[in-house]
Known about the structure:
The complex is a heterodimer.
Chain A: H1 3-17, H2 45-53, H3 56-71, H4 74-101, H5 108-122, H6 136-158, H7 164-183, E1 194-195, E2 201-202, E3 205-206, H8 210-231, H9 235-245, H10 247-252, H11 257-283, E4 285-286, H12 293-306, H13 312-331, H14 337-351, H15 355-367
Antiparallel strand pairs in A: 1-4, 2-3
Chain B: H1 3-26, H2 28-59, H3 66-84, H4 87-108, H5 117-139, E1 155-159, E2 163-166, H6 167-189, H7 191-201, H8 203-208, H9 213-238, H10 245-260, H11 265-285, H12 290-304
Antiparallel strand pairs in B: 1-2
Amino acid sequence: MSAAQWRRAMNGGLAAAQRPRPAAPRAVPMPAPAEEPYADSDAPRWLKYLWRTLSARHVFVMAFVLVFPLVATPFFTFQVAAQSLVLGLIALSLAFLAGYGGMVSLAQMTVAGIAGYGIAVLGFSSSPEISLRWPWWVAVPAAIAVAVLCATLIGWLSVRTEGIYTIMITLAIGVAFYYLVLQNYSVFNGFQGLRELKPPTVFGIDWRAPVPFYYLSLACAMAGYFLVRYIVRAPFGIALQGVRDNPRRMEALGFHVVAHRVAAYALSGLLAAVGGVLLAWYNALMTPGSVGTGWMINILVIAVLGGVKHPIGAFLGAIVFVLLQTFAIDVIDRERFNLVIGLVFLAIVLFSPDGLLGLWAKLRSRFGPNQVLTSTQRRHP
Amino acid sequence: MSRSRLAAWILIGGPIAVFSIWALFDNTRLYLVTLLNGLTLASLYFIVASGFTLVFGLMRNVNLAHGSLYLLGGYVGYVVAGWTGWWILALAAGFLAAALAGLLMQWGILRHMQGQDLRQTMVTIGLSIVVADILLWIFTGQVYQLEAPEWLQGPIREIPLIRAYGAFRLSLLGFGIVIGLFLWWLLARTRVGMMIRAGVDDRAMLAAAGVNVNLVFAVTFALGAGLAGFGGVIGAVELSMVPGEDIRLLLASLIVVIVGGMGSVVGAAIGAIILGLSETYGLAYAPTYSVVFTFVILILVLAFRPRGIMGKAA
């Protein structure tokens, strides 16, 4: 059974029983097969799929992100755009967990940090007595594998409890990791951390130069974005959303709830690990500060700022966050950035729980034609 | 006692007993001083975490701004002690300031989103960022140390086996016990305590019985926040105040209530003792791995008792 049929079957059964609701929380933006205009053409399936789903704004956004580094200054390309993409990728891992799995984990930055420390310890850094100097094509996959394994373990631990407990346990795990890297000098080099982490020079290109690093981040971020888009329509993703909405019913239907949740943690761990490696290269250093509570919470801020109902929200939030970080200091004192971001976060949580995307949807539904967000809203049983 | 319980006691108690006997013979003084250090640290943890667990138990609200309230209490205590020179007054001021802040949080914001656990938690995260930054703004990153009152300064000498031990540090034990007894009296013997216990078990029923639940919530939140501020003034003497302490105490409270069981004051006491002892023994006997000990305990408890040692089904 394909994902679309599966979803229709589930929604169809429910629709009859439910009272009519406002238009917003319905899913299924997929066009019905009957409307398909090129059903009889010879083009391959994927091309037809693209033709069906792409619209002008997709092409516009795509062209914009590809051309952007060619017209922008290196500062914008590297400090603003590339950083937004990397942070957005880590936030995407949290948005996937929170939006589609219903689990808010604060340990995503910890997973990213494990990958970053992994690349620093296994690859090259300024501390020759610690770094193992493996070539990048061994060190990067190894670091990502370790981080994914840790994410799975974190998931296995935290899904033993539910809902609000998850946030506490992941916070405790994250802070414990922070103190571990702070106090351990033999592997993590303590407070100093590991410095001079450089991306490798492959194909004669220095990947830390602004434009190549931008395209590297863009490729990873887009891969992550489309992976999430694909997963949430695949049977696993649909089942995961079922687990989020009603674990008991899914259990009764024969789904292994714990396994789905742990798998979601592993997948989000993969996204966070890739982001973590990129972040380590971006900053060129790993210190305890980069896995501290400040950054753990910043990732949550980014995800919530954009909205967790759709994967694009993470990147939207990251852009706003980075712009605030970069330019708020011109308006106010540099030291008061936390105050600004805290107030913005509070305002979003208080007035628009769905983040900027929710705000956008609200405006659309008030002024424009009816528009729906892709992810189904949580149903309260 | 069932067989599995006996096995658990032997598995956990055995190694601890072996270690204790070895450590007692090896260096009696170190062992006993570490024991006292652990218990006094546990008292501080208990005072802070009992407020956290009280709020959580009644309102299902994970107040992640608890560490900020601790820091707020500490700073206010410092300022008041500087003005008046009275430490007791500082203690009261720290309690009142944090309680007032907690009351404002509950009445101003959290009351309007009752039942939305996640959103409430996010609000407290936002508040903790804002409060921490405002405190940093006012007091800068400097380290503040509050003087102990004169009658608690200096060490107590001529204790058998230990020789000398800091008087203030020892008084922490007393504070912890007094707060524990007070909470027990409040919860078990008074009308307010009865309402709080009833609210923990069934909020809707309590409201149906004609009790103003919002008032009970506000009182509990103020009390829980006040305990954090109270702990802050004590911690300002014993540990010192600097930005970052809020996270440390928040982490301690989290681990204490996860290990002990959320919503249970007795659980908070047990969790605080376990955490305090494991931290100090870890620091004394295996300095690099003290954090790992804490973490292993957390994992073991979660693996075998996901709701904590004294936890009940939600």
